[in-house]
Amino acid sequence: MAVVVLGIAGGTGSGKTTVARAIVERIGPSRVAYLEHDSYYRDLSHLSLAQRREVNFDHPDAFDSNLLINHVESLKRGQAVDQPVYSYTESVRHADTVRVDPRPLVIVEGILVLENTRLRDLMDVKIFVDTADDIRLMRRLRRDTHERGRTMEHVLGQYEATVRPMHLTFVMPSRRHADVVIPRGGSNRVAIEMVSDGLEKRLRTLDPPS
């Protein structure tokens, strides 16, 4: 099965998930297999909750990227995969999984998907979503306090200790691998439309009309 693999990276709170979902909407959900790197965080159930809170979740080692790579390869071969389900409040994997069926377009989204060479080599199109640091911090603060049960002090401390250093060390350098840089995230409708149109053309070459 011939597929197009799209990688979407960007810093925390950059709007990359919004961009990914906008592309899915334009291409059509029935034609897209969507994998989130965040679902592939390593299971930390062997640690206490306090110890889990101290883990650097923005370092490449926090992810089971080998499993993600295997899943992308399987989807390219036309095989369904079982994507992990991760609890962000407890920092553990659930026992259940989500079945992802092969589709013409495979989207791989996450802060570090362009940092990993093996994963990057599987991609046909690479996007980096670039958003101002202050906006990203506000979005991270809002998300983690409202959705993940963190305190403001914890979020700000984590941002200073690990999020920002890892962004400068790993995320931003991966920007140079992008084919397209989208500023302003999901609000950049023109860029999203241009990328979606380009993907449509690629998909038509895989399945030309009879």
Question: Helix and strand layout, with pairings?
Answer:
Elements: E1 4-10, H1 16-27, E2 32-36, H2 49-52, H3 65-76, E3 81-87, E4 92-100, E5 105-109, H4 117-120, E6 125-130, H5 133-147, H6 152-171, E7 180-183, H7 189-206
Parallel strand pairs: 1-5, 1-6, 2-5, 6-7
Antiparallel strand pairs: 3-4
Q: Structural class, from helix and strand content?
A: alpha/beta
Query: C-alpha Rg, in Å?
Result: 17 Å
N-to-C series of helices and strands: EHEHHEEEHEHHEH
* Helix segment tally: 7
How much helicity do the residues have? 40-55%
A few lines on this structure:
The protein has helices at 16-27, 49-52, 65-76, 117-120, 133-147, 152-171, 189-206, and strands at residues 4-10, 32-36, 81-87, 92-100, 105-109, 125-130, 180-183.
Descriptive notes:
- By secondary structure, the chain is of the alpha/beta class.
- The chain has a single domain, classed as P-loop containing nucleotide triphosphate hydrolases (Rossmann fold).
- It is 40% helix and 20% strand.
- The chain contains 7 helices and 7 strands; from the N terminus they run E-H-E-H-H-E-E-E-H-E-H-H-E-H.
- It has a 5-stranded parallel beta sheet with strand order 2-5-1-6-7, sandwiched between helices. A two-stranded antiparallel ribbon has the order 3-4.
- Strand 3 and strand 4 form a beta hairpin.
- Helix 1 crosses helix 7 and helix 5 packs across helix 6.
- It is globular.
- The model has no long low-confidence stretch (mean pLDDT 93).
List keywords for this structure.
210 residues; alpha/beta; five-stranded parallel β-sheet; two-stranded antiparallel sheet; globular
